[in-house]
Specification:
The structure holds 3 protein chains of 3 kinds.
Chain A (H helix, E strand, L loop, with lengths): L16 E4 L2 E6 L2 E8 L4 H12 L9 E3 L3 E6 L2 E7 L6 H9 L3 E5 L4 E7 L3 H5 L15 E6 L2 E9 L2 E7 L3 H15 L1
Antiparallel strand pairs in A: 1-2, 2-8, 3-6, 3-7, 4-5, 5-6, 8-11, 9-10, 10-11
Helix pairs in contact in A: 1-2
Chain B lengths: L1 E4 L3 E4 L4 E5 L13 H10 L7 E7 L7 E7 L5 E6 H7 L5
Antiparallel strand pairs in B: 1-2, 3-4, 4-5, 5-6
Chain C lengths: L12 E10 L2 E7 L3 H7 L6 E2 L6 E2 L12 E4 L6 E5 L9 E5 L13 H4 L8 H5 L6 H13 L14 E13 L3 H12 L4 E4 L21 H14 L3 E4 L2 E6 L4 E7 L14 E13 L3 E3 L12 E3 H9 L8 E6 L2 H12 L3 E7 L12 E3 L2 E6 L6 E5 L5 E5 L2 E5 L2 E3 L12 E3 L4 E3 L8 E3 L9 H19 L31 E3 L4 E2 H9 L5 H8 L12 H12 L3 H4 L13 H5 L11 E2 L3 H6 L3 E5 L2 E6 L8 H14 L21 H7 L1
Parallel strand pairs in C: 1-7, 8-9, 8-13, 9-10, 13-26, 15-22, 16-17, 16-22, 17-18, 29-31
Antiparallel strand pairs in C: 1-2, 3-4, 5-6, 5-7, 11-12, 12-13, 14-23, 19-20, 20-21, 24-25, 27-28, 30-31
Helix pairs in contact in C: 5-6, 5-9, 7-8, 10-11, 10-12
The chains are: A alpha+beta, B alpha+beta, C alpha/beta.
Chain lengths: ~190, ~100, ~675
């Protein structure tokens, strides 16, 4: 009988936390993800389903919204749902049931790694990472862009809290890039 | 270059992948009598104008939409940006 | 005190003495010095050897346009060749070597080339090394490369890190002289997002080099005050030591910030340089102007420099190249240098002005209608020969000569989209093209406004036009009262009959070469440039191009605008390749992908193979196995006997859903 032990995207048993200057970089684990893409003619039904799931209006382009389950816009007629894994282990099944065949739902949990940047002066770090205009990137904004050659989702939770979701297989490279940018800025 | 994405606003062209002449949107009918000739044309022949050129750009590092862009190849001035899905639908497809 | 050429005043911190070495010899300078100013302070005029003839050379300028004082900066892995002494900030322990010599700087064996200059003229290589063809690659080229070599590299890995980043602004202002500062103040106070970038470590441009920019205050003080206010505004980003290298499409600019070049070693974790990509809605070029030399016989000796540079050295760095100085000018600006040096206690041998109506002086001799026709001094200037209006000659001893042939607007970036500069008769120089990069305006001396008052007003008014354009409320600025003397000038490019008179000092192109180029029918400016290599050195001909054009114009019986000019390309100044690579080098060249079993495989001692971006476990060697076949054979046998597991995460997976999903594979996999 094997005794399996969960590891994080960076390979640790606990999520890694790095502190440098005013910035805290923390690896996040334990979140469920599911992508929802409206099928032809299913836009309205899909947005209604997402509204029911998140308890909030469906986020428009470049935005995120929601309470326990949050959604962020990933493309035309396409959203990603995010929720704590402990309470929403079955996020994929829940979403599939909710969209009633009007949208395609894909399990994305553990396909992505997530790093959170927190602290004052995040702009100085972000401007070394990607081409997001930090003058008007505010709470509730979410966008996809290239960071360290990786397609990443960047979500602004508050002015001092930004989450970056990147491909899990490259978690090490992404984390390394984030650390270098923080040290370069501070 | 900056591409003014119809949904997301101005974005660096580095986020996009160039996918060639927008004529690729109009795939020939494989059942047409001259399908072979049409496909040779479709597969191999491209215009290479010095001036406005209509082309496909794929927002690979962004929202993954295909755009139809009219760009002057001599100045890089971009005069029109549309979602390829809108263009195709405007031609009666993907309804 | 060894700094015998140090004057009073200046923007150096005399309480901080810095030790440095040049060609192994120890010197001292002060905080605020450049390597060039510190060497001049120590009476070192000879700083390098020229490219082709190995002529002794000193500084010509005091900025990034420098063609002559090109050195190898630092040693070991950080050694960087072809660095300009005029922009290298002095730091404790700096080491530099002169380059392009065999033997010592004072006795360069290659100086023999100068004796053979008759054979080494334009087109020499093309004509001489034609035959036999097979010799070019194996024999001729290696020899020529060694002889004409620039600096050498260390052949070690660059230990420094380079970073890159992305910035947004409403208005990018390139250059922080009087026009740039006035523009930044105007737009900054109006609330626009402004980036103000300047290549210098002290902002203010010529304000730091002049004594009388303003009527009631010092220009340098005003610059400090203004920069402090700008830095306090949250919507303004002030970037010193940042060179805007080029204009790219749709308002994108490349800029290099030299974060750590002014210290011996970058701080831990900090990059040496950052290459910024700046997204601007509008941009304003306030890059100032570059002074033009005058071509006369042997005008390249150490000690002969631009008059404006001489003034910068005196006023900003409190340094003179010698204690007995002459000036050769065709305009009023040259006289300012004599006035300032005289005030600083330097003896003025004479001001030689080509104009009969030259302004007189009570403090020193002014030779109106005179011309400097030759110079002497093997390793540094000792005297000049002057032809007087009556046709007689006179020899005047002096240790340094300031040349002023008028000023050229710095419009390089306006040409980056192939716009051709437009001749401006009023200043006898090329101004910005009408078809420059979209969104780029030009102000100040770069537009031909050569007075301080003109530069301030032009910067502020251009900024207001841009604000209006962006829909931001304009902001009328109360400008300080500034000097507004007209820049009287009589165009004058070269002394009649001169031959070995240098136009392009970095590529060793003389008046004679331009004449030869004409004689052999390379008369188009593009041919002239490539045949003689005029303006093709690392300085892109910032101080040299105009002289060549003027001579070609005269030879072909055309006007300068008819002859036209070549254009400029990015980068504005030479840039380390490392800065372009940024973080993308070594194992960071691209992201690495690891499969879910990576950690486990690592713990089992797996040997990994790169498969695209993936690292895949290839085999798992066990103790005692010396060859990969032993490990692989064991694994194959084990799998045959029992079971094996292979992590094939490296393969992709495509999820197909939807009503007509079955047609997708049908259409695409047939």
């Amino acid at each position: 009988m094997h005794r399996l032990k969960a590891i994080t995207a960076l390979g640790g048993t606990e999520p890694r936390v790095d502190q440098h200057g005013p910035i805290t970089l923390s690896e996040k684990s334990g979140f469920a993800l599911a992508s929802v893409a409206a099928r032809v003619g299913g836009t309205k039904a899909t947005t209604m389903a997402i509204k029911r799931l998140t308890g909030a209006p469906v986020p428009g382009p470049g935005q995120t919204n929601g309470t326990k389950i949050t959604a962020f816009w990933t493309g035309p007629d396409q959203w990603m749902l995010e929720a704590p894994y402990n309470s929403h282990e079955k996020l994929f099944e829940q979403a599939t049931a909710e969209v009633k065949g009007k949208a395609s739902v894909t399990e994305q949990s553990d396909g992505w790694c997530r790093f959170d940047l927190q602290g004052e002066g995040l702009s100085a770090v972000m401007e070394r990472l990607c081409a997001i205009n930090m003058h008007n990137f505010e709470a509730g904004h979410a966008t996809r862009t290239s960071i360290e050659h990786l397609g990443c989702f960047v979500i602004c939770r508050t002015k001092t809290h930004i989450s970056i979701l990147g491909p899990r297989s490259s978690a090490g490279s992404l984390h390394h890039g984030l650390l270098i940018a923080i040290r370069s800025a501070y | 270059m900056i591409i003014n994405h119809p949904i997301l606003g101005p974005r660096d062209s580095a986020e996009f992948t160039y996918m060639g002449d927008a004529a690729l949107l109009d795939r020939p009918d494989w059942q047409a009598k001259d399908a072979l000739l049409q496909f040779i044309d479709y597969g191999y022949l491209r215009d290479n104008p010095a001036g406005p050129h209509t082309e496909l750009w794929y927002h690979e590092q962004g929202d993954r939409s295909f755009l139809v862009i009219t760009r002057d190849t001599t100045t890089h001035e971009i005069s029109s940006v549309k979602l390829a899905s809108d263009v195709a639908r405007g031609r009666g497809r993907s309804k | 005190m060894s700094q015998i050429n140090r004057l009073g005043g200046g923007q150096i911190d005399r309480t901080k003495t810095l030790n440095f070495k040049f060609d192994g010899k120890s010197f001292q300078g002060h905080d605020g010095d450049t390597l060039a100013s510190a060497l001049l302070a120590n009476n070192v005029r000879l700083m390098g050897r020229s490219f082709k003839y190995h002529r002794p050379r000193g500084v010509l300028t005091s900025g990034s346009e420098e063609p002559n004082a090109i050195i190898e900066l630092r040693d070991g892995a950080r050694q960087e060749p072809n660095t300009r002494a005029t922009t290298a900030e002095l730091f404790e322990g700096l080491t530099a070597k002169s380059q392009n010599k065999i033997g010592s700087l004072r006795f360069d064996f290659m100086a023999i080339n100068d004796r053979f200059s008759n054979f080494l003229t334009a087109g020499f290589y093309y004509k001489t090394f034609m035959w036999p063809a097979a010799f070019w690659e194996r024999v001729y080229e290696p020899i020529i490369r060694k002889a004409a070599g620039l600096g050498s590299i260390s052949f070690e890995n660059d230990p420094d890190e380079y970073d890159r980043g992305f910035l947004y602004c409403d208005l990018l202002i390139i250059g922080a002289g009087p026009s740039g500062l006035a523009a930044a103040l105007t737009a900054g106070r109006a609330g626009a997002q402004v980036i103000l970038a300047d290549e210098d470590y002290t902002m203010g441009g010529r304000l730091n080099s002049e004594r009388f920019s303003f009527v009631d205050q010092s220009g340098a003080d005003w610059a400090v005050k203004t920069v402090a206010e700008l830095a306090s505004l949250p919507n303004v980003r002030v970037m010193a030591r940042t060179t805007v290298l080029g204009a790219f499409d749709h308002g994108i600019y490349g800029a290099l910030e030299r974060v750590s070049d002014h210290i011996a070693v970058p701080e831990a974790g900090k990059p040496r340089q950052i290459l910024w990509k700046i997204y601007s809605k509008r941009s304003l070029l306030c890059a100032g102007a570059t002074e033009r030399p005058i071509a006369f016989e042997n005008n390249d000796r150490p000690g002969i420099m631009l008059a404006g540079a001489m003034r910068s050295y005196a006023n900003r760095w409190a340094v003179t190249a010698a204690h007995n100085v002459a000036i050769f000018t065709n305009n009023d600006d040259g006289h300012k240098t004599a006035t300032d040096l005289h005030a600083a206690g330097v003896s003025i041998a004479a001001v030689v002005d080509i104009r009969q109506n030259a302004p007189p002086s009570q403090d020193y001799e002014v030779i109106a209608g005179g011309q400097v026709v030759n110079s002497t001094g093997r390793l540094g200037l000792t005297s000049i020969d002057i032809s007087l209006p009556d046709g007689s000659r006179r020899t005047l001893p002096c240790g340094a000569l300031g040349m002023s042939g008028g000023w050229n607007p710095n419009i390089h970036i306006t040409s980056h989209h192939r716009g051709h500069p437009v001749w401006n008769e009023e200043i006898a120089a090329f101004g910005p093209p009408d078809n420059g990069p979209v969104g780029l305006s030009v102000a100040g001396a770069a537009l031909g406004n050569f007075t301080t008052a003109g530069a301030l007003a032009s910067g502020s008014s251009k900024a207001n036009t841009i604000l209006k354009n962006l829909g931001i409320k304009e902001n009328k600025l109360a400008l300080p009262l500034a000097e507004d003397a007209p820049a009287n000038m009589t165009p004058f490019w070269y002394v009649e009959g001169c031959s070995r008179a240098w136009l392009d000092q970095q590529n060793d192109v003389t008046v004679k070469d331009v004449k030869l180029s004409h004689q052999e029918n390379f008369v188009s400016v593009e041919h002239l440039k490539r045949y003689t290599t005029l303006g093709m050195a690392t300085d892109q001909g910032k101080t040299s191009n105009m002289g060549g054009l003027a001579i070609m114009a005269e030879l072909t019986g055309k006007t300068i605008p008819e002859v036209g000019t070549t254009i400029f390309r990015p980068p504005y100044t030479p840039t380390a390749i490392g800065a372009f690579a940024g973080r993308d080098r070594g194992t960071d060249f691209r992201p690495t992908r690891q499969s879910p079993s990576h950690k486990w495989a690592t713990e089992q001692g797996a040997v990994f193979v790169e498969v695209g971006m993936w690292l895949r476990a290839q085999w798992f060697p066990k103790a005692g196995e010396t060859h990969w076949r032993e490990s692989v054979d064991r694994e194959v046998v084990a799998t045959r006997k029992s079971v094996g597991i292979c992590d094939v995460t490296t393969l992709g997976k495509i999820d197909v859903q939807g009503a007509d999903f079955c047609y997708i594979p049908q259409q695409n996999l047939l």
